[in-house]
Design goal:
Layout lengths: L25 H11 L9 E5 L19 H9 L7 H10 L7 E4 L6 H12 L9 E4 L3 H14 L8 E4 L4 H5 L12 E4 L1 H10 L10 E4 L2 H6 L3 H10 L6 E6 L4 H10 L4 E7 L7 E7 L3 H14 L5 E4 L3 H13 L4 E4 L5 H12 L5 E4 L14 E4 L12 H8 L9 E7 L2 H14 L4 E2 L10
Parallel strand pairs: 2-7, 2-8, 3-5, 3-6, 4-5, 6-7, 9-14, 9-15, 10-12, 10-13, 11-12, 13-14
Antiparallel strand pairs: 1-8
The structure holds adenosine-5'-diphosphate.
Length: 450
């Protein structure tokens, strides 16, 4: 039985009634990703997937091979880039080819997509033309500014590069004397769909038919925002057929691909995806627990018998996460919570500290269901099983949760704590879905593991 007197512990009871903690919006996840990825992510564990596996795929080994203007190369090196990242290796040869090719590319955030299209765009800008030549569509004001800051750094030795920001209360509008119907002098325009449409159709300071490049960034976030998808499709209709189209996304889904194909004609599709075998390194188990106290007892047993590194626990509600965090802290674990109660800055700080191993146990909710990538976790505990809002098994979230462990060939453990028939049925459905066994283990047998 549990070692600590129950009376001194926060109660796990009555937390079932609480509403589940909500997953963060894609826009928030994307912003968080940008805050966290201040350096390039390691994508060595990702494999290339493409729509035309027969044609040879050229992979760039150095930036020199691209035959860039020396000022642009100097800009790239001054940012500390020495060699192209994985996604840059495969997309840049396509993006810079002549005649230009249309591209759809997907890889997780922090892998170098922004730098890839920024470089491609900068390499094609004609210095002799003072009109918008490249348009970058971004789902949020902040992302637009972030892309701009990358381009500005990369173009620091290219004096003819300037950027117009087509966002609400745009700095460009207040700083330039705009004349309706007279095209902007900036060769690059970055903006959100609504304002870009306004600048094209009403103000007529961007001529879509004169653009030579158009990039849709964060396509997954774009389609999650009401109305943006249609506005993007409308804008693309006004482009010259010779305009090079590129579309980038951090996540992949049928919805994103449908949108992507509507926007980009005859594309090359390149993806960096996780190898399927990832689940092979994860030992998935389930433990029957009659009540929350038993769940906690199971956790104690796991910790007293297994040597564990970084661990993530997932609860349904903030209240359960809080109660569990307090209990585990009392047991001398170094614990932090990551729930929707935290703002984005706080979330970023918790994740940074977890990555740096300032603490070892991260107790979270569905707020981390997507967008947050943490590598190298050795234990994942589903304190509560992942279900959708409608109470159905949430396969994607399960995979996302446990896919964090067992990376880099190391063995990882996933424990599912099962306390009801519904939990059990959810677990069985998940087991069937992934064709990977989830074996039962009793609390007493935990000591026999490994
Ligand atoms: P994404 O758009 O996929 O989220 P970014 O282009 O923002 O990724 O790149 C993520 C981080 O990696 C940024 O800090 C960026 O400066 C850095 N980075 C990008 N490409 C390289 C490279 N080739 N070498 C080193 N760092 C890079």
């Amino acid at each position: 039985s549990p070692t600590t007197p129950i009376a001194q512990q926060p109660s796990f009871l009555n937390q079932e009634q609480e509403a589940p903690d909500l997953p963060m919006s894609l826009a928030d996840a994307s912003k968080l990703g940008k805050m966290l990825n201040t350096t390039l992510r390691d994508s060595s564990a990702l494999v290339v997937d493409r729509n035309d596996p027969k044609s040879p795929l050229y992979s760039l080994k150095s930036f020199e091979e691209l035959d860039l203007k020396s000022e642009l190369l100097k800009g790239i090196y001054s940012m500390g880039f020495q060699t192209p990242s994985r996604i840059q290796e495969i997309t840049l040869p396509q993006l810079l080819s002549n005649p230009p090719r249309n591209l759809i590319a997907q890889s997780q955030s922090g892998t170098g997509k922004t730098a890839a299209f920024s470089l491609a765009i900068l390499s094609r800008i004609d210095p002799s033309m003072s009109i918008p030549q490249a348009l970058i569509l971004s789902p949020t004001f902040e992302l637009a500014l972030q892309i701009g800051s990358v381009i500005e750094r990369m173009a620091q030795y290219l004096p003819y590069i300037s950027i117009a920001y087509a966002v609400r209360s745009s700095p460009t509008l207040s700083s330039t004397n705009l004349v309706r119907g007279q095209l902007l002098p900036q060769p690059i325009v970055i903006g959100t769909p609504g304002t870009v449409e306004d600048w094209c159709r009403r103000r007529r300071i961007i001529d879509l038919s004169k653009l030579r490049m158009c990039c849709v960034d964060e396509a997954d976030v774009m389609i999650a925002t009401e109305g943006f998808q249609q506005t993007c499709v409308g804008l693309v209709k006004g482009l010259n057929p010779a305009c090079q189209m590129m579309l980038f996304s951090a996540t992949y889904s049928d919805e994103v691909m449908t949108f992507a194909r509507e926007i980009v004609t005859q594309p090359i599709v390149l993806r960096l995806k996780r190898e399927k075998q990832a689940l092979n390194n994860i030992r998935q188990l389930f433990i029957r627990c009659d009540n929350p106290e038993q769940k906690f007892y199971a956790i104690e047993q796991i910790y007293s018998h297994l040597v564990l590194g970084q661990a993530m626990f997932f609860c349904r509600t903030k209240a359960t996460a809080r109660a569990l965090a307090i209990r585990m802290s009392n047991e001398q674990h170094s614990v932090r919570e990551l729930t929707a109660a935290l703002d984005i800055e706080q979330r970023a700080s918790v994740i940074r500290q977890f990555r740096e191993r300032v603490f070892n146990v991260l107790i979270s909710t569905n707020v981390t269901a997507r967008g947050i990538d943490i590598d190298d976790v050795s234990l994942v505990v589903n304190y509560d099983m992942p279900v959708t809002m409608g109470g159905k098994p949430d396969f994607e979230t399960y995979l996302h949760r446990i896919g964090r462990c067992g990376r880099f060939g190391k063995l990882g453990y996933t424990f599912n704590l099962i306390s009801s028939d519904q939990d059990f049925n959810t677990m069985k459905a998940i087991e069937e879905y992934f064709h990977h066994p989830i074996n039962e283990i009793t609390i007493e047998a935990i000591g026999n593991l490994e």
